Structures are given as structure tokens and as C-alpha cells.
């Protein structure tokens, strides 16, 4: 499913709107069709490997239940407003994963997942703000979005064990969305979506934004893993001090250099961040195919169909010089040269691609593709 470039200008959006202000985008699709039925979403919420939540009640009386849900639970909900939210639906439903193709103007490493919600009339999760960018696509039914001002972690919240609901919410804009309409909300902007009528489905495409604390914690922990107790401060030819209580500038400079030298290693940071940013969201799920392929199977399959990335697999690469790349797949780093590097770049940049047999004539490229197929990171269409 693609956006109509005459109704949505990627470059203008990134320049004028991205992380600056909310935006209502009236049905910019070449042809909108809701990619998921409510019953299918409810079925996913009953699966143990799928993350889901059920929010019932309304203003002042919200309650939340964590999934997996029992199928019988939906029959007991009655007429009070309720909302079902299911995370990472794109991992399980190809038609939902296809929505992401329209948003590839944002780097892939920033994409988190597609959360899908279903709500009855009046259903919602209350006024809140997120710490990441989000596109809210109206799939079916109608939803009223109320947009507020900018908030942060100092903003007062209502007392609630499970939901981060704003205590103060002043509406600045209000829009009712029809199927195919989109609202973009930058980080920190308060918003509140309320279903108008039943069978309201919304697709939320969220984007990850690592915090400074997360980066510092992860990168420094990675560095610590490579250090030993033998790497210590030393001060041969120690000069006599006038006052033994002073930590001298020379000592501080040496200690500071010891503490920061590794942090400034850009190549090491690039390797760590590539692995960190591609770690699978749900590592406990095994996506390996039931039958492993060998090189003869691969040669037979190539002419038969397109190669597809597993929506649950995370890919990225970092260039090394003019021709080589470091490929990152689900937290692993794979150095690639020549034809393998070319293939790695294509897989990272295209959701679906045709791989000609000549592309894996190089043994390293063939080995790379076979490894990705056998770990379930890519598969042949059909």
C-alpha cells in the first residue's frame, strides 16, 4: 500500500513537520483498504507470544488487563466502552507489515512496530503523550483525536497503576478521522483518541528514539565487558606533592583520559549501536523454518520468487570504506565485502527483492543469503 505523492510530499514533511508539530493528513493513499478484520485482531490477543492489552471504562475509571486474553472475555465486556491494543501486529500479518513500506522515508532503524487497536463507541486510553514519533492511521470506523500541548516527564499524571494519563490536558486542535486518514504526532505532544461509533480500528506506527541514558548505559556496559582488572592507573616517577590531600590536575587528566578513551571510539560505537538497534523485540520467538536449506535448495528457489524480509527481523548496515559494510541482523554483526556487501545493502533497503542467480555466484554472498534464510530473517515469497 503506497501513499499518493500528489497528496503527501515526503521531503516537505521531513523539512516542515517531522518532530516539530502535529499534522492531519486526509487520506493520502492511492487506494485505502483496511488490512485486518476485528476478529483477526481479537484472535492475536489470545495468543501467548503476542503482547496485548484490554482497556475498559472511561474518564476517571480506566482499567487495564494484560493479555493473553481468553476468547470468552470478549463476550463479557457488555456495552461499556473498551479498547483492545495489540503490539507488533506487523510481525504476524503481512498485510499490516505492508503499511510500513509507505513510511520508508524514515530510516528503518527508527521503526519500532505497528500497534493495532480496536475500540467500541467512546473507547480510548485517555489523554497521554509518547516519547517517540507516531503515525496514527484510521483503518476502519471513525475516531476523534484531541491534540494538546507539549509535555515531558515533569508533567503531572493521574494516579493509575498501569496507564500514564495526564492530569492536565488542554485541547488545542480536534479532528475526526475517517478510514485512510492519518494523524502524525511528534514526541511529547499530548493526544487523546476517542472512538466515534463501533468498529473503530487504528494502526499506530511508532518510531524508536534511544534516550541519552540508554545510549550511555548500553555503550559503557559494552566497553566494560572488554576491560580487565589489570588495566589500572599508574604513576611511575610520581612527583612529590606539597599537600598529599590534593588530587592534582595531572592525575585528573590521566584518570579522565582512562575513563573516556573508549567512549570516543567511533568504530567501536558504530558496531555496538548496530547490534543494539537491531536486537529483536521478542527474542523468545523462534522464526527458523522447519526445514533448513542448503546451497542446492537455494539455487532452485531463486528463480521461483521474490525474497522477503521477515517483518520481525531487524536489519541495518554501516559502511566500512567505499565497498565493504557491517551488516547487522537481529543483534548480530556480519562483516561483508564485495558481492556480499552489495547483497546486504539490497536486503536492508528493500522489503521485497528479486535476487538473480548471478548475485550469489560469489561464495560469500551465497553463504550470507543461505544463513539469513535458515535463521528465518528472510524467506522466499510463498
UniProtKB/TrEMBL annotation:
<keyword id="KW-0223">Dioxygenase</keyword>
<dbReference type="GO" id="GO:0016706">
    <property type="term" value="F:2-oxoglutarate-dependent dioxygenase activity"/>
</dbReference>
<dbReference type="GO" id="GO:0046872">
    <property type="term" value="F:metal ion binding"/>
</dbReference>
<keyword id="KW-0408">Iron</keyword>
<protein>
    <submittedName>
        <fullName>Cupin</fullName>
    </submittedName>
</protein>
<dbReference type="InterPro" id="IPR039994">
    <property type="entry name" value="NO66-like"/>
</dbReference>
<dbReference type="InterPro" id="IPR003347">
    <property type="entry name" value="JmjC_dom"/>
</dbReference>
<dbReference type="InterPro" id="IPR046799">
    <property type="entry name" value="ROXA-like_wH"/>
</dbReference>
<dbReference type="Pfam" id="PF20514">
    <property type="entry name" value="WHD_ROXA"/>
</dbReference>
<feature type="domain" description="JmjC">
    <location>
        <begin position="95"/>
        <end position="224"/>
    </location>
</feature>
<keyword id="KW-0479">Metal-binding</keyword>
<dbReference type="Pfam" id="PF08007">
    <property type="entry name" value="JmjC_2"/>
</dbReference>
<keyword id="KW-0560">Oxidoreductase</keyword>
Amino acid at each position: 500500500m503506497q501513499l499518493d505523492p500528489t497528496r503527501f510530499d515526503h521531503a516537505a514533511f521531513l523539512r516542515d513537520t517531522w518532530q516539530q508539530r502535529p499534522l492531519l493528513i486526509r487520506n493520502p493513499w492511492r487506494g485505502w483498504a483496511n488490512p485486518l478484520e476485528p476478529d483477526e485482531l481479537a484472535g492475536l490477543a489470545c495468543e501467548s507470544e503476542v503482547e496485548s492489552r484490554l482497556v475498559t471504562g472511561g474518564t476517571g475509571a480506566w482499567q487495564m488487563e494484560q493479555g493473553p486474553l481468553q476468547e470468552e472475555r470478549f463476550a463479557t465486556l457488555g456495552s461499556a466502552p473498551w479498547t483492545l491494543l495489540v503490539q507488533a501486529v506487523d510481525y504476524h500479518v503481512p498485510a499490516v507489515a505492508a503499511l510500513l513500506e509507505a513510511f520508508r522515508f524514515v530510516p528503518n532503524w527508527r521503526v519500532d512496530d505497528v500497534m493495532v487497536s480496536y475500540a467500541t463507541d467512546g473507547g480510548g486510553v485517555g489523554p497521554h503523550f509518547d516519547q517517540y514519533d507516531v503515525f496514527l492511521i484510521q483503518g476502519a470506523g471513525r475516531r476523534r483525536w484531541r491534540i494538546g500541548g507539549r509535555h515531558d516527564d515533569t508533567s503531572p499524571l493521574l494516579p493509575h497503576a498501569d496507564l500514564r494519563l495526564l492530569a492536565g490536558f488542554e485541547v488545542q486542535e480536534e479532528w475526526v478521522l475517517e478510514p485512510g486518514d492519518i494523524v502524525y504526532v511528534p514526541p511529547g505532544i499530548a493526544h487523546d483518541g476517542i472512538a466515534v461509533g463501533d468498529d473503530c480500528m487504528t494502526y499506530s506506527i511508532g518510531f524508536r528514539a534511544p534516550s541519552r541514558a540508554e545510549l550511555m548505559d548500553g555503550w559503557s556496559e559494552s566497553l566494560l565487558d572488554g576491560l580487565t582488572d589489570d588495566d589500572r592507573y599508574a604513576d611511575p616517577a610520581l612527583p612529590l606533592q606539597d599537600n598529599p590531600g590534593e588530587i592534582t590536575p595531572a592525575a585528573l587528566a590521566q584518570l579522565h583520559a582512562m575513563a573516556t578513551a573508549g567512549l570516543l571510539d567511533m568504530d567501536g560505537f558504530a558496531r555496538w549501536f548496530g547490534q543494539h538497534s537491531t536486537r529483536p523485540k521478542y527474542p523468545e520467538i523462534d522464526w527458523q523454518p522447519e526445514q533448513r536449506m542448503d546451497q542446492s535448495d537455494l539455487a532452485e528457489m531463486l528463480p521461483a520468487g521474490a525474497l522477503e524480509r521477515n517483518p520481525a527481523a531487524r536489519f541495518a548496515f554501516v559502511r566500512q570504506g567505499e565497498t565493504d559494510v557491517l551488516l547487522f541482523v537481529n543483534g548480530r554483526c556480519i562483516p561483508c565485502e564485495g558481492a556480499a556487501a552489495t547483497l546486504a545493502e539490497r536486503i536492508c533497503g528493500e522489503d521485497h527483492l528479486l535476487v538473480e542467480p548471478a548475485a550469489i555466484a560469489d561464495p560469500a554472498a551465497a553463504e550470507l543469503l543461505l544463513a539469513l534464510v535458515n535463521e528465518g530473517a528472510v524467506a522466499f515469497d510463498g
